[in-house]
Design goal:
The chain has 388 residues and is an alpha/beta fold. It is 42% helix and 15% strand. It is built from 14 helices and 13 strands. The strands form three sheets. The protein has a seven-stranded mixed beta sheet, sandwiched between helices. Strands 9-10-13-12 form a four-stranded antiparallel beta sheet. It has a two-stranded parallel ribbon with strand order 1-11. The longest helix is centred in the C-terminal third of the chain and has 22 residues. The chain is globular and about 60 Å long. Bound molecules: pyridoxal-5'-phosphate.
Length: 388
């Protein structure tokens, strides 16, 4: 027993430094039964039937061995068709590879470009995975706060570039703010990356989940800068496929095979039957996406209305994704407010999980049904009443 107490395991330096961060703690915390989940990144919808059927067909055809090369040819082709349709950009299947959701694609891209001490520019706040992965690699996330309207402060990004900068990573629509970036700010970043020889990486996980009047500008539509563009994409949100673990990366021809080589040693190839489901999702009717979008619109405006009615809470208008981001007036740090709400039975995320600019902000998810939103926001209103 004594020996065990004094035993100190060797943990790799950067893993040890990053263990126990807010993101990791969130995923390892046990949520009590009955918790109202306004923290979820998972759509509440089942995966549409025609997508499930495609996977079943592939299984019945015996497609259960290793997938070939960078992915199933049908899948890679379907991705190229989609990119051409949506971004007007021609890519070859050789420029694409299948990934396990967006997560492994992001890991591969960061691993390929970031030596220890290298820098990746992140807009603050942003999806918390990026900084964690960078730190796990010994690289440095350089957070650049958004402008007051939560859009990109291009001059601040320019000023943050140093000789160690390798990547600019953007999440559009942004998680947690829900902001959908405009063409001009994205183009300015693309131009900056080309001038300074950086890679501009975009994660467009929520591109199809848009509120009325919001338009998404795809990264790959900046054709003049294509040598500097990398898209990491996922089926998780658009097609309610979080558990399937499917995504893809699109990269310039000279980089795709290199990146795939890194990715291959993280997950091995992605299941062929899952890729066939992905091809069916991309090539099939998009009515299911429109239906889910319609639901998110209702949920988003319900949550926004309920949040607006809470004194001291100032939600942004929902734009993209299924998160409501809200500033609050109270002096208590976001971690503590999140803890108070959690103790009252509602799981939410603190703004600071997504960067220092998230202080005095909270993130609420409306991926859940309207009854859950109503119950959860009533508890949040109580907590804010108690906070005074
Ligand atoms: C912006 C963003 N990117 C990527 C992911 C990861 O998704 P997955 O690995 O399931 O594709 C998430 C999940 O919440 C996300 O919010």
């Amino acid at each position: 027993m004594k020996e065990q107490e004094t035993m100190r395991r060797h943990i790799a330096r950067y893993v040890e430094l990053t263990a126990g961060g807010e993101r990791t703690r969130h995923f390892t915390a046990k949520q009590p039964a009955g918790m109202i989940k306004l923290d979820s990144g998972s759509p509440s919808f089942p995966t549409p039937a025609h997508i499930r059927a495609a996977a079943q067909r592939a299984l019945d055809e015996g497609l259960t061995g290793y997938a070939p090369g960078q992915g199933d040819p049908e899948f890679l082709q379907a991705v190229c068709e989609t990119v051409e349709r949506e971004a007007g950009a021609r890519y070859s299947p050789d420029d694409v590879f299948a990934t396990s959701g967006a997560t492994s694609g992001i890991y591969a891209v960061f691993t390929a470009f970031l030596d220890p001490g290298d820098e990746v520019i992140l807009l603050d706040p942003t999806f918390s995975l990026y900084a964690l992965v960078a730190r796990q690699l010994g690289a440095v996330p350089v957070f650049v706060p958004h402008a007051a309207d939560y859009h990109v402060d291009v001059d601040a990004v320019r000023a943050a570039v140093t000789p160690r900068t390798r990547l600019v990573m953007v999440n559009n629509p942004n998680n947690p703010t829900g902001v959908v970036y405009r063409r001009d700010e994205l183009e300015a970043l693309a131009k900056l990356c080309a001038e300074r020889d950086l890679m501009f990486v975009a994660d467009e996980a929520y591109e199809k989940i848009l509120q009325p009047g919001c338009a998404h500008v795809p990264l790959l539509s900046f054709h003049d800068y294509r040598d500097h563009l990398i898209l990491t994409h996922t089926f998780s949100k658009t097609y309610a496929m979080t558990g399937w673990r499917l995504g893809y990366v699109v990269a310039p021809p000279d980089l795709a095979t290199l990146l795939f080589g890194v990715h291959r040693s993280i997950t091995g190839p992605i299941c062929t039957f899952v890729q066939r489901a992905g091809a069916a999702a991309l090539r099939g009717s998009q009515d299911c996406v429109a239906e889910m979008r319609g639901e998110y619109r209702k949920r988003g405006s319900l949550m926004h209305r309920l949040a607006l009615a809470i004194p001291g809470l100032h939600p942004l208008d929902p734009q993209g994704g299924f998160y409501l981001y809200a500033r609050y007036d109270h002096a208590l740090p976001a971690r503590d407010v999140r803890a108070r709400v959690w103790d009252a039975g509602v799981a939410i995320r603190s703004g600071t999980e997504f960067g220092d600019a998230g202080e005095r902000h909270l993130r609420f998810s409306y991926s859940v049904d309207e009854v859950t939103i109503e119950k959860g926001m009533a508890v949040v209103a109580d907590v804010f009443r108690q906070l005074g």
